[in-house]
Amino acid sequence: MRTVIIWMFILLSVPFLMAQKVFSQKELDAVLNPVLMEHAEEMLRFERMEINAGTLSEDDKPQVFTFTCTNVGKQKIVVTKISTTCGCTNAHIDSPVINPGEKAVIQLTYNPFGQPGTIYTRAFVYVSISEKKPIAALTISGKVTPSSALWRDYRYTMGHLKIRAKTINMGTVTATMHRRVERIACANAGNEPLKVSAVKGFLPEFLKLRTEPEVLEPGQEGLLMVELDGRKLSGQKGKKSFNVLLEGVSGRPSDRTIKINMDIK
Q: One Pfam match, by short name (predicted)?
């Protein structure tokens, strides 16, 4: 019975699978960057087609950007729809019917929350003259910094690196200990990928430092990991403290230093 059900599922799925279309890059580009109507500026002229929002924060309220246009043609223009490329952006036009010589205002409301990184959102304006090609493409660009509230559990800042502690206690370690790993939660609060390591000369050969993941993307949380190889502890005894200078983050040396404590038996 189970075999019959499986074969029935396969047979029913074949027409659906055959109907699936593999889109070419050209077709995908046509959706994301549709070609504008020919002679669009001779019909509807915008004072500006792109606005740079500058740098916003996820903590900011939704921002409203205004695009003003004028019907410079000889026939009435009816705006039928305005589609946006991101759910973070809503569009509104004050007057969808624009007679010759009249103006209309399109407002794009952009919500930065949940959008850390680069802003590049677009709105395509369609009119009754052509439902397939937009008459205009409006763009908002800029940057969004991650919410400060997201990092409230991270007490220390080293450039764009946020960490919850600046001291790692390895506890009691011995030469028979092949591997011990201690971790500190960390996060990248900047707009660029972050790769953190230890400056050469500050880390003894029996310790390794890295982040997991190795590269922290903007807004990404991770772990700052210190790994001990006990087999390389020969000749070491007693309580030890190592001040480790981090590389890949900005700030004064004292601001980007962590301490590693251990008791070697």
A: DUF1573
